Amino acid sequence: MIGGGTGLPVILKALHKKNADITAIVTVADDGGSSGVIRDYINVVPPGDIRNVLVALSNMAPIYKRIFQYRFISTDQFFSGHAIGNLIIAALSEMNDNGIFNAVQELSRMMDVEGHVYPAANEPLVLNAQFSDGSVLAGESEISAAEKTIERAWVSGSDGAPPRAVDEVIAAIMDADQIVLGPGSLFTSILPNLMISNLGAAVCQTSAEVIYICNIMTQKGETEHFTDADHVRVLNRHMGKQFIDTVLVNTEPVPADYMDHQKYGEYLYQVKHDFKGLREQGCRVISNNFLELRDHGVFHNGNQVVDELLRLTGRPLSWFDGEFN
Q: What is the CATH number of domain 2-29+116-320?
């Protein structure tokens, strides 16, 4: 799976319950919240998305996961709002001379992670965007806050050189049975990974089925008024080809007035469907009820999505429950 944000761990947590060989490739272009503050203080890859993925795939006891995820509520100027796991990842990055990739592998062993967690690059990246009015901004949080129509996104390394994914990331993509993109913010969680040149090329060249889990809601400052076909058009345009094989689309309506838009202010309206537009881009469309409503928010139902992903492998679902092992 390739992505970042809050949607990726939901699917990974459900996959973790199954007999699936999982590799999560996680964005390193986040510059908001605790991750952004740590990145400003210490020149390390932003740890937040990596932290959540590690917890989703960890076999540690629940109490240790809660400690790792604990976020300080102190009024201390530095620690307030920071998750303990973010600080641990930052510390391991400083201790490891070979970058964040090896640090995350070491932490994966410490946390008894089942599967692989790979940072998309071995250095912190900067997300850049050009808007429809021709203006350009750098930084994920700045881009989202601009509330303009994004025409093009790309990433740059800290030294100005084009970023590269490490060999293990490319090998995982080429050896996979499925490449799953999302769910997650189109421009700030998914595209930053694909814009790493050798990573994006590998996704286009692999013989694996490339599956896109379309977002349920449009997102302020990113995908306002987008249909599901618009999401795929953006991905295809950035990669220069129609590379998405299958799209998972939620068709269950979100009840009116259910969502708390103060709490989830970045999400606007339910994504509209354009099945004709998807098919014109060569996509197989799988539509179903993938909706989970909780805490007055709208989420993907991880179990429903994972069942569909496993069906696409051609194996019976019972195989993943260990019946054939």
A: 3.40.50.10680
Q: Are the beta carbons of 246 and 212 closer than 8 angstroms?
A: yes
Tell me the whole-structure pTM to 2 decimals.
0.90
Q: What are the tokens at 312? A: 């696409």
Give me the amino acid identity at 101.
F
* Contact by Cβ (8 Å): 124, 49: no
Please tell me the predicted confidence (pLDDT) of residue 106.
Answer: 93
Where does residue 191 rank: exposed (0-12), middle (13-18), buried (19+ CB within 10 A)?
buried
- 3-state secondary structure (DSSP) of residue 42: coil
DSSP labels, 116-181: EEEESSSS-EEEEEEETTS-EEESHHHHHHH---EEEEEEEETTSSPP---HHHHHHHHH-SEEEE
User: pLDDT by residue (tens digit) across 34-62?
Assistant: 444 444 444 456 688 899 999 999 999 99
